[in-house]
Amino acid sequence: MKVAKFGGSSLSSAGQIKKVAKIIQDDPNIRHIVVSAPGKRDDADTKVTDLLIALFTNHRTGLDTQPAIEQILQRYAAIIDELGVNSGLLEKFEATLKDHLANIEDPERLLDALKSCGEDFNAQVIAEYFNSIGMKSRYWSPREVGILVSDEPSNARLLPESYEAIAKLKDTDTVNVIPGFFGYSKDGDIVTFSRGGSDITGAIIARGVGAELYENFTDQNYIYSAHPGIVKDPHPIEEITYREMRELSYSGFSIFHDEALEPLYEVKIPIMIKNTNDPKAGGTRIVSERGSVDEYPVIGVSGDDGFLSITIKQYLLNREVGYSRRFLQIFEDFGISIEHMPTGIDDISVLMRSDQFEGNNKFEEIMEVLETQLQPEWLHVEKDLAMVVVVGEGMRNAIGTAYRATKAFAENNISLQMINQGASEISMFFAIQAKDLDTAIHSLYHTYFDR
Ligand SMILES: Nc1ncnc2c1ncn2[C@@H]1O[C@H](COP(=O)(O)OP(=O)(O)O)[C@@H](O)[C@H]1O
Ligand SMILES: N[C@@H](CC(=O)OP(=O)(O)O)C(=O)O
């Protein structure tokens, strides 16, 4: 038995939903499907999740919310109309949006409740359509399924007791349609995962029902060794390990959410990435061990911008017991999470995502506390950084991987701010200036994949 997740690109219109129905009709092993909100129909289009966020913003800033509500309802009206399903759903959807706007006062809770509507409405439409074409189907709200999550708005984590509740889906004879992206807190509030989080719901359902395979349908035939929007015709990956995928999806391979690996790697449920528009083509399998390590010691190169680094220098820092701990404690106190921490004998740098400082004064406050509490000899900030990562299980045994990367950077005049190799030796990170990101990915890709 399989669980399949269909992303926003697979469900952006009635035509796409018909393709999804065909995939399920052709494969009776798919018993449970997790769906996203309608995504972009073309490059100029807007995802329904973004329309819902715009509705929230209009509401918060006191603007008229009616145009945004209508825009959202029109997306569903077009789908409902073409699929020929019960148009009474639209009135229900309008009432739900208005009810949230009128009754939820806490802004973070309101934002999550509105965002959840994108997948929740789509799941209801899809289940109704499946029934209308004779495919016995049922919509399940995450509340009925028992998806309990931590109370962290826009960043929920699953509470493990949910798995026991989810197992009840196994006893059904319907194709179960479950909206992705959100669950309920113990207090009964809607809480969403981070963006792209329907992949996480799919993984949770796959584990809860003990699926033999989690199929993740998107708009690409494969996961490629570099982002296809940056490198032309990149190498298609047939097999990649959970660990490799986690490193790459965390650092720019947005095709699969990095947190969606966690529910599956422990129980070794494999993941298959497939294309809704060409379901018989290719596919990338995410597994615990891969066979192609000798042929491809490096499996992918990726990168992401939006980082900054803070470095302190203190002569004889290595002799000052507790200095590093006090340095890190300051970031913890401000709720800032740190991604990398390269150290020298007399200096420590920390790299973090800059978006954590948006809309607050934390950066200035941290700098002040660092100066007053630690009194370093030197305190230095680098902004507009990007992190590039080279990933592969075979790097552990391959000689010269770092040399090849630094040579590629030197040949392309890219200045390196930092190098960090994790203890697992399956990834190597490089901090560079954000303006050099695409050139860096190109040059690394060609270094490792041109044959
Ligand atoms: N290494 C990669 N291989 C394939 N696609 C990638 C990769 N990195 C990023 N992507 C992007 O991920 C997109 C699919 O993810 P997403 O838009 O979230 O799909 P969905 O709507 O199915 O959830 C692709 O269209 C592609 O632009
Ligand atoms: N709709 C949500 C969740 C999601 O997973 O969407 P998609 O499958 O289109 O990446 C978002 O846009 O973040």
UniProtKB/TrEMBL annotation:
GO terms for biological process: diaminopimelate biosynthetic process; homoserine biosynthetic process; lysine biosynthetic process via diaminopimelate; threonine biosynthetic process. The keyword Iron does not apply. One of its GO terms (cellular component) is cytosol. Keywords: Amino-acid biosynthesis, ATP-binding, Diaminopimelate biosynthesis, Kinase, Lysine biosynthesis, Nucleotide-binding, Transferase. The keyword Magnesium does not apply. It comes from the Bacteria. Its EC number is 2.7.2.4. Catalyzes the phosphorylation of the beta-carboxyl group of aspartic acid with ATP to yield 4-phospho-L-aspartate, which is involved in the branched biosynthetic pathway leading to the biosynthesis of amino acids threonine, isoleucine and methionine. PANTHER family: ASPARTATE KINASE, ASPARTOKINASE 3. This is Aspartokinase. It comes from Suicoccus acidiformans.
